């Protein structure tokens, strides 16, 4: 009996597994920490390493792209002499079928800072395999999840007998994601012609658990601001002046108190306008997940109770509802004992997680108008907004999403469920600039410790990621015809 395509894939992956893990370990040894200027040469070295490995994999085009340049050309190569950002890697492997759809895979090759003294049991940049896991900074976030595409595409070719993928395959691997992607949107706009695609796959997410494989269908957006409040030119005596002049700390407290109503809904006018509401089908899918609220609370820094917008479950609140959070506040005397003053200033830091249908620019205007209407005369203020991120959502009935779930189901041998992410990322920039739907494919699990000491990846799950991508390109080619 001849082998099935799935058995060919598994045999191919197994025979190349050791070399694949050795290569990944070599990449993890490069400390590509984009947030630390001293590691800028390492980030460049990481990009060069990946471009060379993609060439070795079979990609006929693999280029290192500078970022932060005022006018990066929409053409191969380009000088990075004027670059102020970390380099990205672009690769392309056209299909033999001219009518095949084009798929762009996104990930990042930069990593969070890490040092042994942070609490690591071993050198974070000397990968260690133990108990079926590979430990090292970037093992899960995101080098491991980028790298499984290299073996996956080779297994796809071995199983199908093709000399090129079933889709026109492109990769864009960013070098600044862990630094907030400051140059990413500009890069996508400048290189939009090279990056054009029918669908985008984000490989920078995770699954529910080792035993419950899932596909993420959306990420929330983000807006944040800092509100500075100034009253008297210096701290003044509360007996001589208190109750007769505005107190910036009191105004800050009133703003915080006014941010939510008694049902934990955000009170900013227009905040909920236009949002995409959860459907009954989505709520039912969330309810299928094996969610243990008490266990979840134990992961929430020792929190002992849930609290949030009335009428929604905990998962619905963190995945599909917008929020307003007080990230920090201060003003006045903070030392031991009392000090009877009216403080000169106060400060608030607020952030807003946004869902599909909310526009960060509109939310920022609403926040500013809401705050300014509550700041009395005699209190000067300054409201500063940071970089924002747009929300992103994939419709459950999109054929490309079904192709991802089918490929993942073949690899894991079980039903694939659906989640969303409460966090934020640059996915919406790709969707908005390229006009292509965004889907998510990740195999990392919560215990992998993204951004934490002893970050690791489960090797068996990493191999399942390889297998998923081996099936994915044929599934997408059929779904997007």
Description:
- With 481 residues, the chain is α+β, with helices and mostly antiparallel strands.
- It contains 14 helices and 18 strands.
- Strands 1-2-6-3-7-17 form a six-stranded mixed sheet, sandwiched between helices. It has a four-stranded antiparallel sheet with strand order 11-13-9-14, covered by helices on one side. A three-stranded antiparallel sheet has the order 4-5-18.
- Helix 1 runs antiparallel to helix 3, helix 1 crosses helix 14 and helix 3 packs across helix 14.
- The longest helix has 24 residues.
Bin the helical content.
25-40%
Q: Major sheet, described briefly? A: 6 strands, mixed
Mean of residue pLDDT? 95
* First-to-last CA distance: 32 Å
Q: Report the principal-axis shape.
A: elongated
Q: How many strands?
A: 18
Question: What is the element layout, followed by pairings?
Answer:
Layout: H1 5-28, H2 40-57, E1 61-65, E2 88-93, E3 102-108, E4 128-130, E5 133-135, H3 143-160, E6 168-174, H4 184-190, H5 192-195, E7 199-202, E8 214-219, E9 221-230, E10 236-237, H6 238-241, H7 248-258, H8 280-288, H9 293-299, H10 314-320, E11 323-331, E12 341-342, E13 345-354, H11 360-372, E14 380-385, E15 392-393, H12 399-412, E16 417-421, H13 427-434, E17 438-440, E18 456-458, H14 459-479
Parallel strand pairs: 3-6, 3-7, 7-17, 8-16
Antiparallel strand pairs: 1-2, 2-6, 4-5, 5-18, 8-15, 9-13, 9-14, 10-12, 11-13
């Amino acid at each position: 009996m001849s082998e099935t395509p799935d058995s060919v894939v598994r045999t191919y992956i197994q025979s190349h597994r050791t070399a694949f893990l050795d290569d990944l370990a070599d990449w993890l040894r490069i400390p590509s920490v984009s947030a630390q200027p001293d590691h800028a040469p390492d980030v460049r070295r990481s990009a060069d390493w990946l471009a060379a490995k993609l060439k070795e994999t079979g990609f006929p085009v693999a280029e290192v792209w500078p970022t932060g340049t005022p006018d990066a050309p929409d053409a191969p190569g380009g000088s990075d002499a004027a670059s102020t950002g970390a380099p990205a890697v672009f690769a392309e492997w056209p299909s033999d079928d001219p009518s095949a759809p084009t798929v762009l895979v996104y990930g990042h090759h930069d990593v969070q800072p890490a040092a042994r003294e942070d609490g690591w049991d071993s050198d974070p940049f000397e990968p260690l395999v133990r108990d079926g896991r590979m430990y090292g900074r970037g093992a899960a976030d995101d080098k491991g999840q980028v790298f499984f595409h290299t073996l996956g595409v080779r297994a796809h070719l071995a199983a199908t007998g093709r000399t090129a993928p079933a889709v026109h395959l492109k990769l864009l691997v960013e070098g600044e994601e862990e630094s907030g992607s400051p140059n990413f949107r500009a890069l996508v706009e400048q290189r939009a012609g090279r990056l054009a695609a029918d669908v985008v796959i984000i490989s920078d997410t995770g699954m529910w658990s080792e035993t419950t494989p899932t596909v993420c269908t959306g990420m929330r957006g983000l807006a944040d601001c800092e509100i500075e409040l100034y009253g008297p030119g210096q701290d003044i005596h509360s007996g001589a002046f208190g109750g007769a002049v505005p107190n910036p700390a009191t105004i800050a407290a009133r703003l915080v108190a006014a941010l939510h109503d008694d049902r934990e809904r955000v009170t900013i006018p227009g905040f909920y306008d236009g949002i995409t509401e959860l459907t009954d089908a989505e709520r039912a899918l969330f309810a299928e997940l094996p969610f243990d609220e008490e266990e979840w609370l134990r992961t929430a820094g020792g929190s002992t109770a849930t609290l949030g917008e009335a009428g929604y479950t905990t998962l619905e609140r963190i995945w599909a509802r917008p929020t307003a959070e007080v990230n920090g506040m201060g003003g006045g005397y903070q030392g031991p004992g009392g000090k009877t003053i009216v403080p000169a200033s106060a400060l608030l830091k607020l952030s807003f997680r946004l869902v599909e249908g909310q526009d960060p620019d509109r939310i920022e205007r609403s926040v500013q108008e809401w705050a300014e209407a509550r700041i009395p005369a005699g209190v000067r203020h300054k409201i500063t907004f940071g970089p924002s991120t747009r929300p992103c959502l994939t419709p459950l009935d999109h054929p490309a999403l079904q192709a991802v779930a089918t490929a993942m189901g073949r690899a894991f041998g079980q039903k694939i469920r659906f989640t969303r992410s409460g966090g934020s990322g640059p996915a919406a920039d790709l969707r908005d600039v390229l006009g292509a739907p965004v889907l998510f494919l990740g195999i990392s699990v919560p215990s992998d410790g993204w951004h934490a000491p002893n970050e690791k990846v489960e090797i068996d799950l990493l191999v399942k990621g390889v297998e998923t991508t081996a099936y994915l390109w044929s599934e997408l080619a059929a779904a997007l015809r």
